[in-house]
Design a protein that fits this description.
nine-stranded mixed β-sheet; Glutaredoxin; alpha/beta; 8 helices; disordered C terminus; single chain
């Protein structure tokens, strides 16, 4: 049984033909046991590769194997959190675009936009935004909690991905809140999208906010997080949505 019907496949092919500028590779971390959505994630990515094999490819890695576990860790991922998708550009570089969960429902659009972003050499941004991004001098992990039925979540996820591509100091990890209930509880995810900014390699919140904010506001939170870390701060501050 196919996950993508013929109409969706045609739409996907148009996106690959018109908007994906260079080949993108997805590394899918999975395991056979205790992961109900892993087979669906694998099938989804392989169907995308069938639609546009010259633009999209998939590598499936089992974190049940020691080498797979180490590879997941090399991307800053928890090997136990599967399925997890990392998108690599034409040079095989991790652009900081990670999705932890099955990108189904409304989050399928997040996946497609993520592929487009991973294919771009440079994100089109105004000079002021580029200037502000240069102020981020700390390694930030932007955790975006989403659900597949949330209409505002794709906007928040894509904004985070844009900043990840534009700044070497930003990694964006988008989590399906329902597939990662322990993290949702830890970060008190009541409404989505919920954004938690931490230092890379550290789970302690530095800045948190709720809602799909305009890019300029979203970026201001990243700058505040970087400034707080530069000053030696680390405990969570919660900013209003």
């Amino acid at each position: 049984m196919q996950l993508l019907n013929e109409e969706v496949r045609q739409q996907v092919k148009q996106v690959f033909d018109n908007e994906v500028k260079a080949p993108v590779k997805a590394v899918l971390f999975t395991r056979a046991i205790n992961c109900e959505t892993c087979p669906y994630a694998e099938q989804l990515l392989k169907e995308l590769a069938e639609v546009a094999p010259e633009k999209f490819s998939v590598e499936v890695v089992s974190t049940a194997q020691p080498e797979g576990e180490e590879k997941a860790k090399s991307f800053g991922l928890d090997p136990e959190r599967v399925p997890a998708i990392v998108l690599l550009d034409k040079e095989g570089k991790d652009r900081g675009i990670h999705y932890i969960g099955l990108p189904a429902g409304l989050e399928f659009s997040t996946l497609m936009n993520a592929i487009i972003l991973a294919s771009l050499d440079e994100i089109q941004m105004d000079d002021r935004t580029k200037e502000l991004l240069q102020q981020i001098n700390q390694p930030l992990d932007v955790k975006v909690f989403v659900t597949t039925s949330c209409g505002y979540c794709p906007q928040a996820a894509i904004t985070a991905y844009q900043f990840a591509v534009a700044s070497d100091n930003v990694v964006a990890n988008v989590y399906d809140a329902q597939e990662n209930p322990d993290l949702s509880q830890k970060y008190q995810v009541v409404g989505v999208p919920k954004i938690v900014i931490t230092k890379q390699g550290n789970d302690e919140p530095v800045v948190e906010f709720v809602g799909a904010q305009p890019p300029e506001y979203f970026l201001s939170y990243l700058i505040q997080a970087a400034q707080k870390l530069s000053q030696g701060g680390g405990s969570g501050i919660i900013l209003p949505s």
